[in-house]
Amino acid sequence: MYFVWGSGGGAEVAGDAGMRHCPVCSAERRFDLVVNYRYRHFWYLISWVSKRAYSLVCSHCHNALPEAPAKQEIAEKLSGQKDPIPFMRRRGWVVGVALFALVLGLGAYLASEDKKEVLQSIATPHVGDVYLADLSKISDGYKKDPPAYGAMKLIGIDKSNERFVIARVGYNKKKGVRKDVSKGLVKKDSYYDTDDFVELTPEQLTQLTRQGVIYEVIH
What we know:
Helices cover 29% and strands 37% of the residues. The chain has 219 residues and is α+β, with helices and mostly antiparallel strands. It folds into 2 domains: 5-98, no CATH class; 125-218, no CATH class.
């Protein structure tokens, strides 16, 4: 992935500057108050104005007077008027912030929904269910090398405990175990070490899910 930074500029008429003598036309002409601006952007959409400069431009020949207008005159001409610089050049960064907030909000919502699904699955366990988790927080065999994302398979249920066997392999990224899920490997008994098992209560499973240790249940 690469980043796109850039800059640009433009000019917009900010207001009517009245009649003045134009040295190019050698006549009285109507002049415009023009704002010349520079802007910077990120990915073209997220932009902001980095510089403004005002000039008096003849509406007939479009040449600017050599002297810049006084600050007081600029303030008077712009008073009560809308900023002539296009919104996306001035406030494009607001759109970027809004999109970023939307992505964060959507991510949080989806994560919350995923957690609800896991909690519902834990409340109605079935032998053969596969739990995806950070095994370094659950199994002694993986505690020395966190994180270790992997699978554990539910093989027994009694009144107070649920018994799981632990996968023979763990990964430092979730996509590692996700590939094994897509290949159907996590459903095979040979995928697990029958000598490596844990017993957890429903309360412990719920707590591990709320902590994000257990993040998916595959039926």
